[in-house]
Amino acid sequence: MQLKDQFRFVRQNMKKNKTRVFMTILATAMGCAFLIVLASVGFGLQKSVVKEMTERRVITQIDVHGKEGDDGGSFRPINKKDIQIFEEVKDVKAVTRRKMLQQEGNFSIGNYQEPAQTFVANFPSEVKAGLELSEGRLPKGQDEVVVGYNFPLNLASKDAPDDRYDNKSQLKTEYRYSGKLIGEKLELTVRQLKDGKQEEKTIPLTVVGISKKPTKEWAEDRSVFISDTILTEIENFTGTPKGYLLDANSEVPTDQDIHENSFDEVKIYAKNMEAVQGISDQLKDLKYATYSVVNELKEVNMIFMIAKAGLIFIGTIAILIASIGIYNTMTMAVTERAPDIGIMKAIGANPKTIKRIFLLESSYIGLIGALIGTLVSYGISYAVNFAIPLIIKQAFGKETELNIIFSDIPLILPVICILICYGVTIISGYRPAQRATRVDVLKAMRREV
């Protein structure tokens, strides 16, 4: 008997018991749909977490926090020699380094003011790392500055009341500076404490550029970038490194953490994501303390891998329960088709052929159930992703702040489900198929098994 004849024989026999076969396929489809939908929750949450992590941080970025000292217990800040080492590492695209003014600078223009973090940056490296301007140009003179995109949006009138912000925590339009900023004079006020009294110094600056709008809606860039010369002028006024503001009981700090030759914020940018791990490993060998989102992703992916394996295992139990139905269906099929089996054996059919026919039938039932279950699971996944945010909104009166994917079905998940289902159906049909090969011809002809 050829393979196509075996398939035809299987289909004909399945049509004779449509109800029983249908119920068996339905049970298998439900088991597969349960497995896929259950595991899709793990895949969906992993995708949401990874997406959130990679959106909040540049995937090729490596933060360098310091270098381990010779005593092995303390870390020193990064200096210029370290920067040279970083720039010579293979696959490094850029190394940004910033010094931070160690007091909050107060910036004003006319009757408008805003406190903001103030940095000294190396603009060539910042541009390599991806810094772009929405208006203006990069600084050329010592008194020229670049401000963050959100800086002009938060320049508030000095007379603005306490309720100056709207329900989205944004400065109301009527209190916001509305004039042009490029080319305008901006005054930086810094402070120092001398003989128990606070003194102030005002430094005139010129705004020449505004950075590009952050790609993420939640991100805000209100920084101001001044020159090294301006920072030196502030240091001369305060008498402290990086303008550290003393209080009445403080002494001039000598700790290296705020030393004028060190950097407060150092970031390395790799040429591509694949190079991040290699660069991190090299820096670790050189005893630098680093952090990159890739390191965190490895841990997150490991946790979710264990969770997904557990969910798939639980889902497999549903398919195992469905396999009981397949075993019952195939056992009944062997009993009912005993005369047909007897005739096939009488005309010389090979026992292997008889076994293959029944294994084909059980596989047929399992695969059809798996395919139907897969299609149903995609529909359920879509409905879950659509309905749950609406339910949360109705229940709590607001939308979720995070863009959570509750269910995600990658191609590998249906493939795993179909393979599991196929394996289970083969096992379920194997014993009845073996029984079919042992049917006695004479008894079968008398319809006795």
UniProtKB/TrEMBL annotation:
<dbReference type="GO" id="GO:0022857">
    <property type="term" value="F:transmembrane transporter activity"/>
</dbReference>
<feature type="transmembrane region" description="Helical">
    <location>
        <begin position="21"/>
        <end position="45"/>
    </location>
</feature>
<keyword id="KW-1133">Transmembrane helix</keyword>
<dbReference type="InterPro" id="IPR050250">
    <property type="entry name" value="Macrolide_Exporter_MacB"/>
</dbReference>
<feature type="domain" description="ABC3 transporter permease C-terminal">
    <location>
        <begin position="312"/>
        <end position="433"/>
    </location>
</feature>
<feature type="transmembrane region" description="Helical">
    <location>
        <begin position="302"/>
        <end position="327"/>
    </location>
</feature>
<protein>
    <submittedName>
        <fullName>ABC transporter permease</fullName>
    </submittedName>
</protein>
<keyword id="KW-0472">Membrane</keyword>
<dbReference type="InterPro" id="IPR025857">
    <property type="entry name" value="MacB_PCD"/>
</dbReference>
<dbReference type="Pfam" id="PF02687">
    <property type="entry name" value="FtsX"/>
</dbReference>
<keyword id="KW-1003">Cell membrane</keyword>
<comment type="similarity">
    <text>Belongs to the ABC-4 integral membrane protein family.</text>
</comment>
<feature type="domain" description="MacB-like periplasmic core">
    <location>
        <begin position="22"/>
        <end position="236"/>
    </location>
</feature>
<feature type="transmembrane region" description="Helical">
    <location>
        <begin position="364"/>
        <end position="391"/>
    </location>
</feature>
<dbReference type="GO" id="GO:0005886">
    <property type="term" value="C:plasma membrane"/>
</dbReference>
<feature type="transmembrane region" description="Helical">
    <location>
        <begin position="411"/>
        <end position="430"/>
    </location>
</feature>
<dbReference type="Pfam" id="PF12704">
    <property type="entry name" value="MacB_PCD"/>
</dbReference>
<keyword id="KW-0812">Transmembrane</keyword>
<dbReference type="InterPro" id="IPR003838">
    <property type="entry name" value="ABC3_permease_C"/>
</dbReference>
